[in-house]
């Protein structure tokens, strides 16, 4: 059975991280962005001493849960455990219609690999007013506003990421046995980092306005292009060791959707497993609530020497920023081309695991090598108004590795979603 790793054609080597268990080969302070990275040439100067914290404005009540559509089936937990709420609705019963999905996409007409999902704000409301919520309890891992339009908010983040928050969610914040997760929030409106509403573990039910410059390198003493936006080991003013960093609770409002570094108002949202580096980005639908059932369909066709697999996920599109129920399910995990015998037993297979593509040195190449088979990914245009997400996968060279039907063998396409639901076709 051939369940093979991917390599991009033309790359020197596949470029996978040796381990995905959190033992990153990158240095402790190598924080990788979703796109282009900071060149490290900029420098920081002091921005004055911290101001006295003001009395915090009370947080708004947690978002109310709209009544789910009674005609929609309830989620059936066959393989997913949804620990998070949606960052834009703040609930586990309503989603924002996705404008750009995780994985293969077209960006300005060209193929691009997308490490997260894009959730628009309401651009017709005359400003930035749509709140961003913490998807789970956690601590602030890194945070920052861009010092200038040409500088990234965090070290190794390019300016196109805009203003950024990264939250760290330990297993105790999720459920026993869970992996540590990092949730990333990009393109935010400017944040008040001198009086940021947060909490501390020793009095978690109390919200205080925190001067984050005391806890993070946000200008002034010790801030460099290599540590900007990340944790200080000691307080900026006193130099005393920091023993507890600011936290947030699930559903807490943490920012406002903006357009910093972007061409339109939206939240770019990511989930990274075990490490905050980009190679650990996973499809957020593995954790965001949605219906746990088979929504996707697939088909196989032959076009000359090419075997084409077409995967489609239907959904109800809508206006940018609009909210829907839990039926939106953009959650393809892997695409398996199988060779089966007359008894329907699997003889061999080629499996494309979408999350592995994001670990390549250059995931933005649509032409890949899968054990000697040339693989081309062709996503269709997709935005908030789209009624379906479609991806064509072309296999060329199956005969060269002996993956061809003989004596009654047949090709079977099996597409699995993140909850383990499968759609199989011949």
UniProtKB/TrEMBL annotation:
Biased composition (Acidic residues): 33-52
Region annotated Disordered, chain positions: 14-86
Entries under Gene3D superfamilies matching the protein: Glucose Permease (Domain IIA)
Listed Pro residues bias regions: 53-76
GO MF annotations, alphabetized: metalloendopeptidase activity
Name of this chain's protein: Uncharacterized protein
Organism: Enhygromyxa salina
């Amino acid at each position: 059975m051939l369940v093979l790793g991917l390599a991009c054609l033309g790359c020197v080597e596949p470029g996978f991280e040796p381990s995905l268990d959190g033992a990153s080969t990158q240095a402790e302070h190598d924080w990788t962005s979703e796109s282009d990275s900071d060149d490290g040439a900029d420098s920081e100067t002091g921005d004055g001493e911290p101001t006295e914290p003001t009395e915090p404005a009370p947080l708004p009540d947690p978002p109310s849960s709209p009544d789910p559509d009674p005609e929609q089936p309830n989620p059936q937990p066959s393989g997913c455990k949804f620990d998070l709420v949606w960052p834009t609705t703040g609930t586990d019963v309503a989603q924002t219609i996705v404008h750009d999905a995780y994985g293969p996409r077209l960006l300005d007409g060209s193929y691009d690999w997308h490490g997260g999902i894009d959730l628009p704000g309401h651009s017709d409301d005359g400003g930035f007013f749509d709140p961003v919520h913490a998807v789970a309890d956690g601590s602030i891992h890194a945070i920052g506003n861009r010092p200038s339009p040409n500088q990234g908010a965090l070290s190794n983040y390019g300016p196109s990421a805009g203003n950024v928050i990264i939250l760290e969610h330990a297993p105790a914040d999720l459920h026993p046995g869970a992996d540590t997760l990092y949730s990333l929030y990009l393109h935010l409106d400017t944040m008040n980092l001198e009086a940021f509403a947060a909490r501390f573990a020793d009095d978690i039910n109390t919200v205080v306005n925190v001067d984050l410059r005391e806890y993070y390198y946000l200008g002034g003493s010790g801030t460099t292009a290599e540590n900007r936006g990340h944790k200080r080991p000691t307080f900026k003013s006193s130099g005393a060791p920091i023993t507890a960093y600011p936290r947030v609770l699930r559903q807490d409002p943490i920012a406002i959707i903006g357009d910093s570094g972007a061409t339109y108002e939206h939240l770019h949202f990511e989930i990274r497993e075990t490490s905050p580096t980009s190679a650990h980005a996973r499809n957020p639908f593995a954790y965001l609530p949605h219906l746990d059932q088979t929504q996707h369909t697939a088909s196989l066709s032959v076009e000359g020497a090419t075997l084409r697999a077409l995967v489609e996920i239907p959904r109800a599109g809508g206006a940018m920023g609009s909210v829907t129920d839990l039926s939106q399910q953009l959650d393809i995990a892997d695409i398996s081309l199988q060779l089966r015998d007359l008894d329907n037993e699997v003889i061999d297979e080629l499996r494309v695991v979408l999350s592995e593509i994001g670990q390549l040195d250059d995931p933005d190449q649509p032409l890949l090598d899968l054990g000697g088979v040339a693989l081309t990914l062709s996503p269709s245009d997709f935005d908030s108004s789209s009624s379906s997400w479609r991806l064509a996968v072309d296999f060329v060279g199956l005969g060269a590795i002996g993956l061809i039907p003989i004596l009654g063998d047949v090709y079977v396409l099996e597409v699995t979603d993140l909850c383990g639901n499968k759609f199989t076709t011949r």
